[in-house]
Amino acid sequence: MDAQITLRIDGDERSLTVDTRTTLLDAMRDRLGVNSPKKGCDHGQCGACTVLLDGRRALTCLALAVAYDGAEITTAHGLADDEILHPIQQAFIDYDGFQCGYCTPGQICSAVGMLDELRAGHPSHVTASLTSLAQLTDEEIRERMSGNLCRCGAYANIVAAIREGVVA
């Protein structure tokens, strides 16, 4: 069965007809040519497909496209303001937070979403107190980013980039 949906991706409204079993990731990559989110494991375990979906980080390989008709989707590409990179994007460059780069768009979207969660007061497993805002320690960053895997092992630089991106 097919359905007509509209997605707003990086500020552009895009309409398409999809099979109701189509994932959001496949609709974006295969049907709309949006290739910032990557297909890694296709099981929600690696985080390469992470985007900001209505402002919250989400794994697009686990989301059915029809469930997000009308949604606002921001990819790593959409975080930049024309030629000016988002502070997290710039920090990833400055701190060499990538090697092969395959996981980088998901890492960047997850970092931006994670920082929004932190500012909103959402605790993580390692947050010391549930009654006060978490401090952005390396342990806190690692815990909150644990759903995003880097096969190259650039974790030390990713943590440093996130820490620096908050300051910028």
From TrEMBL:
Alphabetical list of Gene3D superfamilies matching this protein: 3.10.20.30, [2Fe-2S]-binding domain
Keywords, sorted A to Z: 2Fe-2S, Iron, Iron-sulfur, Metal-binding, Oxidoreductase
Keyword Disulfide bond in record: no
Pfam families referenced in this protein's UniProt entry, alphabetically: Fer2, Fer2_2
InterPro entries reported for this sequence: 2Fe-2S-bd, 2Fe-2S-bd_dom_sf, 2Fe-2S_ferredoxin-like_sf, 2Fe-2S_ferredoxin-type, 2Fe2S_fd_BS, Aldehyde_Oxdr_Iron-Sulfur, Beta-grasp_dom_sf
Residue span(s) of domain 2Fe-2S ferredoxin-type: 3-79
Tree of life domain: Bacteria
Protein name: Xanthine dehydrogenase YagT iron-sulfur-binding subunit
GO MF annotation: an example: 2 iron, 2 sulfur cluster binding
Pathway membership: Alkaloid degradation; nicotine degradation
Keyword Flavoprotein annotated: no
